[in-house]
Design goal:
mainly beta, binds zinc ion, globular
Length: 136
């Protein structure tokens, strides 16, 4: 298994509503908001439910495990990404349900396939860490 070079780190814009997500990410932990009413996990992180519009949301620890739902290998990047090709952009379906647009990085990124199992990994980015995934 080979490994492509690391991807650039772009510091996220921190939104107060998402503080529980970013605080957990800084500890390399994944938490997801879950609606107290309809029990759905919510992505992207926010303090209301897009399904039933309640603001009764609990922040729950997530497994960090998921399955590649779809992906592409970017061969020609734009801007800061131009120097990092090839790299993988993927939708990962978390075991909790949400589909997350993310990068697959680390060993095995070059052989990733739909249906592959992946796990969360957190890359330092300023005061927090970025959620990405790596093959299991
Ligand atoms: Zn709901």
């Amino acid at each position: 298994v080979s490994e492509w070079p690391p991807l650039p780190i772009l510091e996220p814009s921190l939104v107060a509503e998402q503080a529980p997500f970013w605080d957990a990410a800084a500890r390399s932990e994944l938490v997801l908001p879950r609606c107290r009413s309809c029990r759905e996990f919510i992505w992207y992180p926010r303090a209301f439910c897009p399904n039933c519009h309640t603001s009764m949301v609990d922040w729950m620890p997530a497994s960090g495990h998921g399955t590649v739902y779809s992906f592409t290998v970017v061969a020609r990047g734009v801007g800061v990404w131009a120097d990092y090709t090839p790299y993988v952009v993927a939708y990962v379906e978390l075991d909790e349900g949400p589909r997350v647009l993310t990068n697959i990085v680390g060993p095995g990124a070059d052989t990733i396939r739909i249906g592959c199992r992946v796990t969360a990994r957190f890359d330092p980015a300023g005061d927090t860490k970025l959620l990405r995934f790596t093959a299991i």
